Amino acid sequence: MKATEHDTDERFLIQAAQRDATCFAALYEANFDRVYGFVARRVPSREEAEDLTAEVFHQALASLGGFEWQGTPFAAWLIGIASHLIARRWQRATGHIEVPADELETIGVSDHAERQAVLAQLVDRLPDDQRLVIRRRFVDQRSIREIAQELGRSEGAIKQLQFRAIETLRNQIRSGHA
Amino acid sequence: MPSYEIEQLDAALNALLAGQTLQALRNDPELLPMIEIASQLQLTPRLEFRAGLRDQLLAQASMPAADRVFDAKLAPSIHAQLKSRSVRDSVLPPLFSTGVSMLPVRGSHLAVSFALHVAALAIVLSSGWWMVENRTVVRKQIATRFSGTIDYLLPSAPGELHGGGGGGTQDKMPPPRGSAPRFSDQQLTPPAVIVKNEASKLSAEPAVIGPPEVKLPQLGQIGDPTAAILTPPSNGTGSGSGIGTGEGTGVGAGNGPGVAEGRGGGIGGGIYHVGGGVSAPRTIYDPDPEYSEDARKAKYQGSVTLSLVVDSEGHPRNVHVVRSLGMGLDEKAIEAVSKWRFEPGLKNGRPVAVQIGVEVVFRLY
């Protein structure tokens, strides 16, 4: 039932975006974490992941008019675009046409991508100070000392916040409260 | 939570962030799930990238469908755009952007808001500057408000200067309003509203003691000119055979053969001066006078001396200039002092009208 409601909502969103392209923002927000998570696992650097993710959404928006709803999630279509882009980049870099089989997941949405999207949502729900520490530590790659200086707290306090945040994420993933 | 676990996790995370693989960190099964999560956290997107891409997409979406074709080779790198964006954002965050966040954000709205704020600030600053430039602080200085210290103006009374008189035949009713009899040097017959002995063999015209050349207004019926109301005929509740509520052969509430408050003949009551048992009025509301435009431009300073009567209600009456300053400042002083309110002067605990002098000092600072 939930899946059907989700499909219906997504279908309406797609139709709305086809009529008015500015409505594409809702589809972008709903699928960003999945696409980024899928791409980021397959390219070596954050910059490359961001460029490819941007390209996926730009191409999706450009060709949205030709999209036909066939019952598969919109995310699958986006992942398909991402797979092709990664394959092309791989081909340019190595000169080979073939790409690893798992790079071409076009039918379903990647489990990893789904987990990544769930994790992003859980991070958003963390208390402010824990969320900030996680973002500074893992996204901005800052050291504990740098974060402590920025927040005006001791290094021990930052390590404790880091521990609590990851522990909370682990517990929530285990209990399935995604 | 044990601190060694915190330190252990941090050490493992340092190794992970330094580039070690998860395989190398699989020593501790307790921490492994947390390290795996940390590994996934490394793949979390930057917030500014997410927002920047959204803005790019909205800009692309606002173009006509035909122009919406995306060419990765021609499109500017998102990193280049985010870099320029971060520089702009540090100065004026959404002024250069057009996008949708929680609420629609448009640069034009921000520009209008910015302009209005600048205009408001300009008005505040310019008005402050004007105030400083045209600072005409009017300092009224009441050197002395009361005649007691302005000798040349209104000399204080060494004692009661007023005459007066009173009378009555201990009737139950106060005397009616009416005219006092004429003044005379000698009083043969005290005045009376009700004549007790109408068949007097030696009759004389009733009179009160006072200067004969002063003609009192004659209203017809004899009575107390200071009485407020018309009452049935009565000589009043006082004593001594006159008319009124005082004592003696006169008329009024005083004591003696004269008229009105006071004693010893003549006319009493009216306006008092400070001293001799009359207390000075006190100001309870005294707004500052304004500076006249001419005097302000000419930077003219000085003081105006006014004379006025503070009535028994505390209102200034008959305000007039005793020593003028000119350039419109006299009028400004009168205008201000006319708005003043006083606690009236007292005589025998009762409020009375008192004449005072006020010096208003105009000074530019």
Structural features, described:
The complex is a heterodimer of chains A (178) and B (365). In chain A, α7 (144-151) packs across α8 (155-175). Chain A has helices spanning 2-19, 24-40, 46-62, 74-94, 111-125, 128-139, 144-151, 155-175. Chain A is an all-alpha fold. The radius of gyration of chain A is 19 Å and the shape is globular. In chain A, 36% of the residues are buried. Chain A has two domains: 2-109, RNA polymerase sigma factor, region 2, helix turn helix motif (Rna Polymerase Sigma Factor, Chain: A, Orthogonal Bundle); 126-178, Orthogonal Bundle (Arc Repressor Mutant, subunit A), CATH 1.10.10. Chain B is of the alpha/beta class and 365 residues long. Chain B has five domains: 3-41, no CATH class; 47-91; 96-134, no CATH class; 147-157 and 273-362, TolA/TonB C-terminal domain (2-Layer Sandwich), CATH 3.30.2420; 163-269, no CATH class. Helix content of chain B is 26%, strand content 16%. Chain B has seven helices and 15 strands. In chain B, the strands form six sheets. Chain B has a four-stranded mixed sheet, with helices on one face. In chain B, β10 (302-310) and β11 form a beta hairpin. The radius of gyration of chain B is 47 Å and the shape is elongated. At the A-B interface, α2, α3, α5, α6 and α8 of A face α1, α2 and α3 of B.
Secondary structure class of chain B reads alpha/beta
SS strand fraction of chain A: under 5%
Which structural class matches the secondary elements of chain A? mainly alpha
- Biggest sheet overview of chain A: none
Cα Rg of chain B = 47 Å
Q: At the fourth CATH level, what is the homologous superfamily of the largest domain in chain A?
A: RNA polymerase sigma factor, region 2, helix turn helix motif
User: In total, how many domains does the architecture of chain A comprise?
Assistant: 2
Average pLDDT of chain B, to the nearest integer? 75
Order of helices and strands of chain B: HHHHEEHEEEEEEEHEEHEEEE
Number of helices of chain A: 8
